[in-house]
Protein 1
Amino acid sequence: MKIVVDRIKCQNHGQCAISAPTNFELDTNGDLQYQETFDEENINDIEDAIDSCPLQAILLSSDAVNG
């Protein structure tokens, strides 16, 4: 699984950075930075970040390639 952020929807509210600071942060310009990959131990925080996004711009995607 990997984190995917729809950059068109995202308006850098930062709720994800509050919910999952290990994977999301706002840089000095206020723009969202995030890691696509994550440790399984952080899944609860990632799910909280997804739920907290006011624009539903975050989702989890399978990184497996379908042949």
Protein 2
Amino acid sequence: MNDITVIHSDAEGMREALKEAAKAFRLGEIPIGAIICNKQGQIIARAHNLRETTFDATAHAEIIAIKKACQKIKNWRLCDLTLYVTIEPCPMCAGALFTSRIKRLVYGATDWRAGGCESVFNIVSNPYLPHQIEVRAGVLEDECSAIVKRFFQQRR
């Protein structure tokens, strides 16, 4: 990946994640997008949902982005990295974020039905676990929520 985009703010990071969500939308996938940045703000991984395309229940944007980031830096520990994702990660993805030791999570809209970070479950900041992730929620929340709503309205 030769992406030299540098993120200067959480809003910029979420706009890049929304670009990934739009790719998923065009594929008929639930439009969730994610990017991972290093501490200099450089995007090192981009991903969007691919469950329908790959017939893989684990092909969530966050999981794909984590795999790409690990390959890029040649390490499973993502200690100094930030993940931007358009919707609050599910419990599976929250577990992957915890396991990868990601430093920071920024997400757009809350998932009140299956969120794994703050709404339904609190996996990433659970004080009983040995690693807590810094979380910022609600970045470009309206835009992140709108693309998912539009997707499901079109499917009905």
Protein 3
Amino acid sequence: MSMPQVTTGAGYIAKIEYQSFVDGEGVRCSVYVSGCPFKCEGCYNKAAQHFRYGEEMTDTVIDEVLEACAPEYIAGLSILGGEPFSNLKVVAPLVQAFRARYGRKKSLWIWTGYLFEYLWRANDKRTAVMKQADVIVDGMFVKSLYRPNLPYKGSLNQRVIDVQKWLNTAQLSQSIYIE
């Protein structure tokens, strides 16, 4: 299977969950981007596969998300999809604004169907976004590998990667997992 080359997307988001208890550690603000080239069988967010589903991302929406992250009890921002790394038109400015406002005081989690190693080796705008993340959950959802109650993922092939620990080790062969 060849990897999809879509990177910028159409600039839409499917929804915002202002207080999510399942999209990472702690209470989080979750942004679901629109558009996904993978179309995994059994996807729980099928409507968000279309690149123009939902509403267009604007500076006003970014400000709204940042304000939603402001309360002390919000641990950080989670970006899901659709496919975030096929939607850099939404994700890159959102991540940049989030880090500018909160630095490393709040965490950033990103889910992707791509493998971490593939995105890292691309050494492009997606890699720059990855470096800003604290945690990346990688791998496409595989229906036959689905297990209920897996922490932060839907199927056994997916990995929960502590990006900052990985960057500190600088060894791709020693990806560090939270679980």
Protein 4
Amino acid sequence: MIGQKSIISYFSTPVKKKNLSEFTEEESKDKEAINQEDGKWTPVKKLKVGLEEEEHSQPAKPRSPLSPQQLSRIERNKQAALQRLAARNAPPGLGESWKKELLAEFSKPYFIRLMGFVAAERKHYIVYPPPQQVFTWSEMCDIRDVKVVILGQDPYHGPNQAHGLCFSVKRPVLPPPSLENMYKELESDIEGFKRPAHGDLTSWAKQGVLLLNAVLTVRAHQANSHKDKGWEDFTDAVVSYLNNNLDGLVFMLWGAYAQRKGSVIDRKRHHVLQTVHPSPLSAHRGFFGCKHFSRTNELLKKAGKTPINWNLL
């Protein structure tokens, strides 16, 4: 089962189709609990990674009407079975607090298809970031400790760059142009900021800055190659959870793509800072001088939260 595999084998091994006879007793009970509703059997989709099959049931047998207590028990069993199936489909490497709150996503058809797609891509191509770093953003802090959200588009597609945090690159890789422009803005915005020689933003993430790309994987040297495969639905669910369950977050939305993704944010509940993308193509049209970093700290202080130390050691 997925939850028992390492993230490497999970993302790199193609899915093997099961025969009906190969299902474990627990999986059979889960399917039964999901399928039995309102006192009759109906066809269901089996929830398995990379595979959806239609199961044709036995003809319905006449039954006496179920009592409210029986219907309630069936519903509870159904929900419990869905949770077990979702837990088995949860991707290894996802932080525990994030896994708990996003559990419902892992049994949805789009996510099952997505995991199968990524596994197939890793079999035939080089895919970034490495399997064990796809969910780095979820390992840096508890989901309820997020204070700031910076949204990116998709990972860097060059060797040794992407490591699961948007805009960030692993040491000793030099900062890419967009990150260099972020450093330029920080130098003018934050007193005492010293531009580092690296591009590793891990220290921000550990303070509660969620550095989240909309798409979490990419084929080497092919930007946006994993676009519209399902990652956007998953990261929409992340943004939705934060929007609905936390208060006073600061969302930094740089560029049209991030602003569209952040259009669902409740601006009475959270703070939204918008400007153009820090790319060299647009930074001079509003990113430089936006002072988003100092404004973020002011908003955090007003909310009684610890401001971010933007210096990178």
